Amino acid sequence: MMLKVFTDRVSLGKAAADQAATALRRAIREHGHARVVAATAASQFEFLDALTKAPDIDWQQVELFHLDEYIGLPITHPGSFRKMLLEQLIQKTGITRYHLLDGDGDGDAPEVVRRASAALASAPVDIAFVGIGENGHLAFNDPPADFKTEEPYLIVSLDEACRLQQVGEAWFADISQVPTQAISMSVRQILKAKEILAVVPGPRKAQAVKACFEGEISPMAPASILRTHPNATIYLDKDSAALLSTALQTTA
To answer: Are 116 and 37 in contact (CB under 8 A)?
Structure first.
């Protein structure tokens, strides 16, 4: 695992996009296509914007998998991750092969999980783009996260800290509007990606960054598991890295 710290969100996003674009081009060159997992949230905006502008990526050869989505939230809601993924990545690049997690149907979530899991597990993932939550969550795996299950996707319950984060980011007016369950890629499935790129800007993430990268590797700090991956890069800005020891604050 490697930590990189940048002065601001824009330079962070550009550098992360450069690494992501290189990985996509390499995968397409080496085996004709790239299989990608993408996160969607306010923290990913600058990164995804820069990535969609990267040159020389044959997006028709990219197969995209959704990291997580609320259960019971319509795609028209501003906080819908499907909506963000469509607007921020799919429509801008013309990706035609994508697997969205439709958690909006009544009682359909287990079937969505089954279909998405079968598609995802059918071949290796080249690169996963992820974020880290204010409670240290990885995807929607809130603490204590399940570090053992091999299921590709899970139905999970969202804790109060996770739901309050969504209110704090202004996607919902208050916590009563935030769904209590979600479909999430599992921790072990995320770790199966050949390369992981975590984009984690902003002061609200500083405590989680410290817990995950200076504390124990523990289900109570879910993203700490990224320290076990041989090819994971964590992109921070000065705000999200503010509580790290000086030894870890290597500015790129």
So the answer is: no
What domains are there in the chain, each with its CATH number? 8-203 (3.40.50.1360)
Q: Mapping DSSP to helix (H, G, I), strand (E, B) and coil, where does residue 172 land?
A: coil
> Count H helices, E strands: the chain?
8, 10
The candidate with the shortest Cα–Cα distance to 157, out of 184, 130, 128, 127, is 184
Whole-model pTM? 0.94
| Nearest alpha-carbon partner for 144 in 68, 207, 218, 216 | 218
The string of pLDDT tens digits covering residues 149-179 is 999 999 999 999 899 988 988 789 899 999 9
**What is the SS3 assignment for 98?**
strand
Q: Over the stretch 52-99, which tens digit does the pLDDT of each residue have?
A: 999 999 999 999 999 999 999 999 999 999 999 999 999 999 999 999
**Nearest residue to 159 (alpha-carbon basis) of 183, 135, 190:** 135
Considering only CA atoms, which of 38, 218, 39 is closest in space to residue 145?
218
